[in-house]
Structures are given as C-alpha cells and as structure tokens.
C-alpha cells in the first residue's frame, strides 16, 4: 500500500494531507503563514517559516498516521514568487512575493532603448523584473545568487538536497532565459540561475535522512516535482483534458478552457499546460470577494456567512432584471483595467436584498462567460462542462446560476481541497499508479452536476449582450472617476 503526503503551500497557510491508495484521506493538518507587506509595494515571505510549517504539519499528521509508511511526497505552491539560493544552497533573502510591485522603475531603466520581442508582456510582477531589482538594490545578494526557485521547489530542495523545477511553474522565466537570443542574458541575467527543468510528475529525489522531528520519518520517500497551485488544483479537478473548462473560485477567480492547441484570444493568457494541452484564460480580480462584499453590507452580524447568505437568498425574487458589474477591485482577465469599478444597472424599488445578491452571483458568472466565449472562439474547442472548486463552489445556488449563464453543466466536488487532490494525482502518476493526471484525479462519482435550465439559459442569453454594453459604458465612466480629482 502506498501512503502519499500531499502539501499545498499558499500565501496565507500550508495545508497537508495523507492519502491512501484509494484516495481516502487518512489525516489532515494545516499551519498559518503570511507575507510581510507594508504598503510600499514590498511583499516578502520568510522561507524558513515555510520549512517550519512543514515540520508542524508533519508532527500533526504523524500523531494520527504512520509517516514511515509514506512512499511519496508531492508539493504544490503559490507561484510568481522567487526564492534565491547561493552556491551552497542557502537561502539568501526572503522570497519575493507575487504581489511585490517594487521593480517598475528598475524595469523601465533596464528596457530603455532595448529593441527585443521578449519585452512584450513584461511588467513589475514578472520574475525577470524582480531579479533586475535585486541586482540593482541588493548587489551583494545578487553576486551570491546561483539559483532561483519557485516556492514548492525550495521545499523539495530542503527535503532532498536536489534542485529541480517544472516547465509550467517556470514558464515565465523560461520564456526570457532560453531560446534564440533570449532577453534575460542580454540584460545580464544568466540562464544558469535556472534549475534543471522537467515535468510535474518527475521524481526529484528521495527525502534525505536525518531531518528534524517528524520529517525524519519520511526518509527514503520519493519527492515529486509538483507544480504551481492553480495548475495542480485543475489537475485535482480532473479538468486537465481538452474540452473541459475550470474555475478556481476563491476571493478572486481563475477561469480557463483546456484546449488541444495554442490560440491567442483578446484579454486571455495562453499557456502550455502539458503535452497537447493549452490553458486559455487566466486570473481575474473578483469572485467570492464580491459576494462577501454584498452579504456583509446587506446582512452584517456575527452569524456564519453561509447562514446570512441563505437568509438573503430566501427573500422574494423580483421579476425585473438586475445587472451587477463585479469589478470592485478593477479587473485582470479578461479586461486588464485597474480603473474599472463595480455598478448595479437596472436597480429599482422592486428589488430587494436577495435580488442584489443574485445579481452579484450572475455578474461574476457573466465574466466567466466572457472568458469562455473568447477562448472557445479562438480555439474552436467547445467545453463539455465546467469544473469548479474553491469557496465559490460551496453555494449550490451560485453553481446553478453559473450553469444557467454559461449554458454548460457545472460540476462541483463538495469542498474538497483540490490543490491536495491534484498533488495526490501527481504522485500517483509519478509512482506509475495511474496512466495520466486526468485518470488519477477524475472522481466524477464524488461530485454534484448542475445542469443548465432551458428557461434560465434563455434569460441569460438575453441579458449577456446587455452586460457587455454596460461594461463598455462603465469602463469609460470608471476611467473618468479615477481621474476625477486631477480633472477638477
């Protein structure tokens, strides 16, 4: 029997679980984490704290199950976060987090007068920009830097003593560091800082003996390379197959279509996600945060969020349509407009709090539909269903609304931690226990399928063009409001 340790390293916490061969969870544990941010654009994390958190969760798991029976470890983690190591493998500074925005000025100076196609798409959040920032502001640190790793790679390195990453997590750096006339070396960033690159299911090595505490009981277990948290969660959904769409619905959402070919689509990100698979879509800025915003204002109090939401949804429904454009925090995919703001359109005296909550749910679903429509048009691939995970998947009402708006079945998985499920699937493939990630993770029997209602679909089809027109009008007004003080 194989016992697999799956770990999900996030910005606010680490989650871990022990899985049996059949996917049953034998034990679970978590530990809190945080980024150090001060409003200046700095966002850093203590890599040592990540290692300590792994020790903590190992102790808790070991109190419930036999860690010596673990045959494989698979870690997924937050991405667009850089860990710098010296030639001895020591961590040189705190990890630079995905929200760190300090590299803008340095990037502009570095690119001044540079005529190179690789500059397209560079911004302060790109890993190359962060490396340029370290070179400019921390020259002694940069002089000692020999490797740049993703967070999950840093954990794997600490477990095994071997540095390795995967092409999906390292896609952005690989794009500027390798190939014909890459941009990074032209700017003085040598490609030798990259570790060996493979696939998420590659075995990095085995857990070295002599690790402290409960981690010592993992000695000899194989460690899989793993990948970033979004890709791994999609793997856990069983959605890594062309013709499926996915939604990772947290405070903000990541939505995309898996296709069998690359295709540029307006406002969407196209990424290679494995052999014969491309992701067309990407991260937005709004999701369950918009729902929390409206519920907290219409029904504040100490009662659990789910109870307050249910009470609002139980109120009578107005027959008059109501649109909500859910851009409380601007938008990334598909509009890439930081100035974009939210608005209700069509609000009347007949609408009650429940109507406003449903409009928020529909508004987020209409953004999903915008992404899906553009991705399908670009690839010629139609999604057979949408698989969804995260906090936004816990509301049956919202899942049904998504199905009606998207015109596709929506499948949810009962709050299962999909990052951990995906890490388990990675380990099963890496151990030779499953032929593919889709086969390793597809647990349709443990899911709930929400089929679109024909009547509700017709209503959504009529409202969707109006939602698009409202966005076009709102975008202009939002930009004017953003510059209101300057215009007076």
TrEMBL record:
The keyword Transferase applies. Coiled coil: none annotated. Residues 245-428 form the Carbohydrate kinase FGGY C-terminal domain. The keyword Transferase applies. Residues 4-236 form the Carbohydrate kinase FGGY N-terminal domain. It comes from the Bacteria. This is Carbohydrate kinase. It comes from Acuticoccus mangrovi. The lineage of its organism: Bacteria, Pseudomonadati, Pseudomonadota, Alphaproteobacteria, Hyphomicrobiales.
């Amino acid at each position: 029997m194989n016992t697999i340790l799956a770990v999900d390293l996030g910005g606010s916490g680490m989650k871990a679980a022990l899985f049996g061969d059949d996917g049953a969870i034998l034990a679970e544990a978590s530990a809190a984490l945080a980024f150090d941010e001060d409003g200046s654009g700095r966002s850093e994390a203590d890599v040592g704290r990540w290692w300590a958190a792994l020790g903590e969760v190992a102790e808790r798991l070991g109190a419930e199950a036999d860690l010596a029976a673990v045959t494989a470890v698979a870690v997924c983690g937050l991405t667009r976060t850089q860990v710098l190591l010296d030639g001895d493998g020591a961590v040189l500074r705190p990890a630079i987090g995905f929200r760190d925005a300090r590299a803008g000025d340095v990037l502009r100076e570095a690119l001044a007068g540079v005529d190179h196609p690789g500059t397209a798409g560079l911004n302060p959040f790109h890993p190359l920009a962060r490396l340029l920032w370290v070179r400019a502001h921390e020259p002694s640190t940069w002089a000692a830097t020999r490797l740049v790793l993703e967070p999950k790679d840093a954990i794997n390195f600490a477990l095994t003593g071997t540095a390795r990453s995967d092409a999906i997590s390292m896609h952005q750096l690989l794009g500027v560091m390798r190939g014909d006339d890459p941009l990074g070396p032209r700017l003085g960033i040598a490609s030798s800082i990259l570790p060996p690159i493979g696939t998420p299911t590659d075995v990095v090595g085995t857990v070295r003996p002599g690790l402290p505490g409960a981690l010592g009981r993992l000695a000899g277990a194989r460690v899989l390379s793993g990948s970033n948290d979004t890709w791994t969660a999609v793997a856990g959904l069983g959605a890594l197959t062309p013709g499926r769409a996915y939604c990772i619905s947290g405070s903000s959402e990541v939505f995309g279509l898996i296709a069998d070919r690359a295709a540029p689509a307006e406002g969407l990100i196209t990424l290679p996600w494995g052999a014969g698979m491309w992701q067309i879509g990407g991260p937005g800025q709004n999701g369950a945060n918009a729902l929390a915003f409206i519920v907290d204002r219409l029904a504040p109090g100490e009662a659990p969020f789910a109870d307050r939401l249910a009470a609002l949804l139980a109120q009578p429904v107005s027959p008059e349509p109501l649109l909500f454009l859910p851009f409380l925090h601007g938008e990334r995919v598909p509009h890439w407009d930081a100035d974009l703001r939210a608005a209700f359109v069509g609000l009347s005296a007949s609408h009650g709090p429940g109507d406003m909550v449903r409009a928020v749910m529909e508004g987020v679903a209409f953004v999903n539909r915008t992404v899906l429509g553009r991705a399908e048009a670009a690839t010629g691939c139609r999604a057979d269903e949408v698989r969804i995970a995260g906090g936004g998947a816990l509301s049956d009402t919202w899942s049904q609304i998504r199905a009606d708006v998207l015109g596709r079945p929506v499948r949810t998985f009962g709050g299962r931690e999909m990052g951990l499920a995906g890490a388990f699937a990675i380990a099963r493939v890496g151990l030779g226990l499953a032929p593919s990630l889709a086969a390793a993770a597809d647990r349709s029997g443990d899911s709930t399928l929400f089929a679109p209602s024909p009547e509700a679909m017709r209503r959504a089809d009529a409202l969707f063009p109006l939602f698009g027109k409202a966005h076009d009008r709102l975008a202009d007004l939002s930009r004017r409001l953003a510059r209101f003080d300057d215009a007076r």
